[in-house]
């Protein structure tokens, strides 16, 4: 089978083929490494390949299978991850000049879980500096570029993760989502990504940004593949005090249940304000696809969103500034101007303002869930309100840069504040040839319903199967 054929199988089918010895884990790893290398001059998605380590891990899996030993559910599946998940003894530079040469002594729980499931990590992927840029720009490592058109952004901060999966160079990638950093690259690159419920997935060994908002989740081609990866990484972890002390459910148990009998809610007020006409048409077509899948679509009210928009900004700025205060004082010139400006803004936020934002979180979340989820099983919302911009026009130093920096995460960061799970699904393409997407938001810890719905949507649409042309 060709490399493209191997990487096009999807996670479940590839893992099964490796277990049956129809494809070797080494061949799968080689295919991913070759694809990443072929795309690298066009995308700049890779921070560092892990060729020797990946091939050694793949050889161990093939040997275990040959001996008839049990292997994990993701055995031999090649993945690459955002360069902020620590692996003991390996570089983890977090897209930052200040982290060059940093070698952690601990391993991320999420990576350890994927290792235990048999996944093979083939590379570290580029990201926005300290995961603090919604467009994906990074003057330190070079901007990651969109595989559909390299002049355009990938979205951030999981920029390399979005680009590498969309290019079909890796089957899945871990990202982080503090204000949209999984859902934005997923929507902008035309793939699927999950921001899990806050506390579902351990953040131990992942670079922190904002403790009240940070989440860890996967990007992959399909909702089914995202569910498979989530199954491996979700669950209680004593090393993360904020991780929920509850076992992970079976995310695949109901995934084939279809959308019939489920209700999709649409709140057309705040979430749709300023939506571009091209994007609006795509969103309406997506709602028609939901109806075709068997879901009932109803209008709902979504309270408090304008207030939440301000409060979530307060939290992310204050918490990130507190985390970086000492480095900012001693090494301010080592930050890019865009990140430095955000951190300095956070230092000026009064403690009372920050604490008020935290105190408002529980009542606002309860009111939102009570109002929305009394009417529906998941809320439909746009991700990006505009066609995907170019790298040049959305750069922080460009005349239009400030507008893009503010508007791109407008509809994603709301749900970080609420702590709710949100699944980003590809929905079509605008006239500039770039993807557009929407997100479905669920009740706390109700990822199984989101996966069931996402899989049903992707059974009646093929947007997630469309891939950019490989480089010549």
From TrEMBL:
Transmembrane residue ranges: none
Pfam entry (one): Amidase
Residues covered by the Amidase domain: 29-450
InterPro entries: Amidase, Amidase_CS, Amidase_dom
Entry's Gene Ontology molecular function annotations: catalytic activity
PROSITE patterns: AMIDASES
PANTHER family: AMIDASE AMID-RELATED (PTHR11895:SF176), TRANSAMIDASE (PTHR11895)
Protein name: Amidase
Biological classification of the source: Bacteria, Pseudomonadati, Pseudomonadota, Alphaproteobacteria, Acetobacterales
